[in-house]
Each structure stands twice: as C-alpha cells, then as structure tokens.
Amino acid sequence: MFGRRRSASDRGRNRGRDLGDEVMAAEEAAADEVPGDQAEDDAASKVGPWDAADTYPEMARVDLGGLQVPVLEGTDIQLVFAEQHGAWVTVRHQLSEMQLQAFAAPKRAGIWSEVRGEIAAEIAGAGGQSAEREGPFGTELLAQVPAEPGNPAAGIRPIRFIGVDGPRWFLRGLLAGAAAADPAAAVPLEAVFSQIVVVRGEHPMPPRDLLELRLPAEAAAALEEQAKAQQEAEQNKFTQSPDPFERGPEMTETR
Fold first, then answer.
1. CA 186/CA 179 separation, integer angstroms
2. CA dihedral 145, 151, 155, 157 (to 10 degrees)
3. Phi-psi bin for 42: left (phi > 0), alpha (psi -120 to 50), beta?
4. Integer angstrom CA distances of residue 50 from 9, 57, 200, 207
5. Which of 92, 98, 216, 235 could be cross-linked to 189 through a Cys-Cys bond (beta carbons 3.0 to 4.6 Å apart)?
6. C-alpha dihedral over 137, 209, 90, 20, to 10 degrees?
7. For residue 89, what are the β-bridge partners?
C-alpha cells in the first residue's frame, strides 16, 4: 500500500497540498500575468486526467505502469489483482474509496457513452436504478445498487461512475462509500482523479483491453525478497537437524 499521511516525511511531503490550493494558486498567478479569458484558460488547463504525452503539473505520483496516481495528503493507494476482473487501483480517503481502471480505446472515438449504457443495463438487471447527470468530468452515472445481490433485505447502497475519454484510452472511476452521495466527501478523490496520468503506450491493443498495471520497482523487489525469505525459512524448518545434546520435553508425575 502506498499513501501519504500528515506525519509523512518522504521527499514529496512539501507537495502534499490539496488540489484546490494548487488550482487556486494557479488561478492567482495566471490572473497576475494574463488578463481576461486567457487567465481562465490557463487555470482550467491545470486539471486532467492527463495523457503521458501532455504537459501536466509535477507532483508526487505512484508509477503503476498504465496509471501514474497522485499521492495526495490523507489518501492510501492499493493495487489489486483479480483473475476474473483484471487489475485495478483502489484509492481510499476516510470513509470513501475509488476504484480506477484504464482501457484501450479507438483512436478516433471515445467509448464512455457506450460504456455508461452498458453499466446502466447491468445495474437494472441486478435490481438497481441509475441516472445520468453532469459532474466535474462531464456526464457521469449515479446509481443505487443492492447492498448484497440476491438479498433484498440488505437494502441498497449508492455508487457513482465517472469517466474520461482520452487519446486512445478511457479512464473509469467508481466511487463508493461517503463519496458516492456526499459531494464534500468526494472532493479528495476527485482531486486524485483529476491529476492521474494515463500511460497508453504505442503498441496496438484491442479496444476495451485493460492497460497493464504493475507494482513500482521498489515494491516489487521488496515483495520478491520477502517471498524468498519465507521460502528459505520453510526449507530450513524441514532440513534443520535436532541437537542431540538438547534436553527433550519432560513430564513430572506427582502422586
């Protein structure tokens, strides 16, 4: 798990400001230098998600291969691997979480509109409801889904889908917990989403294939060392000879 808490002392500590502070600072600087509409355009250009070929603001990001995810204060980042659903990134903040996946897309057409329709149909088939609305990243899908599929007595829970079509990629976020219903709770996760860098690569991929996600090199090396140490410990447990001079277990009988 990768995260930054208020007590963190890593090299990105001084960059862990809230996205709102960064955008406000950008707006003030632009307003001082460029009048009118140009200042507004400069401020707006500070918000992504970004393609790897774009010019984007520098900040501490975790390199997960197809996604570079910003590490903002108070957030935890986890890479999850699953056989049936592929890999995804989970970003947590207090009582909210956001799942992120990036897909290949056609060169000249986005797929978010089509994907929204498919998600809505799937939700309806599961006994839930959904509706489109405009959000900070364009059209999104707000849904009410069964808390436990097949168990109506468990009630329903809100979830929220956001998506952005990029150049030959599509980025989808699923917000759950407090962020799905409370706009204030969603702000930190929206800040993360807006500063993600998508690394599509130049190799051909069928549309809707997941972009590859991987652990950072340091984390992968640490896990490899941990697995090696565990394997050696297991081998030593079975090959270690008992000490012939060591006293064995004793039993005292009292009559």
1. 4
2. -30
3. alpha
4. 27, 10, 11, 19
5. 98
6. -20
7. 79, 100
DSSP string spanning 55-121?
------EEE-BSEEEE--TTEEEEEEEETTTEEEEEEEETTEEEEEEEEE--SS---HHHHHHHHHH
| Sign, Cα dihedral of 104, 212, 56, 174 | positive
Q: Is 250 helix (H, G, I), strand (E, B) or coil?
A: coil
The architecture CATH gives domain 46-216: 3-Layer(aba) Sandwich (3.40)
Query: Could you tell me the pTM of the whole model?
Result: 0.71
Instruction: Centre a 10 Å sphere on the Cβ of residue 213 and count the other Cβ atoms it contains.
Output: 19
How confident is the model over 199-241, as pLDDT tens digits?
999 999 999 999 999 998 776 566 556 666 666 667 666 556 5
pLDDT value at residue 211: 97
pLDDT above 80: residue 192: yes
Domain range annotation of the chain? 46-216
Mean pLDDT across the chain: 80
- At 116, the amino acid letter reads R
Instruction: Return the closest-CA partner of residue 193 out of 42, 89, 79.
Output: 89
Please, which residues have CB within 8 angstroms of residue 224's CB and are 6 or more apart in sequence? none
How many other C-beta atoms are found inside a 10 Å radius of the C-beta of residue 26? 18
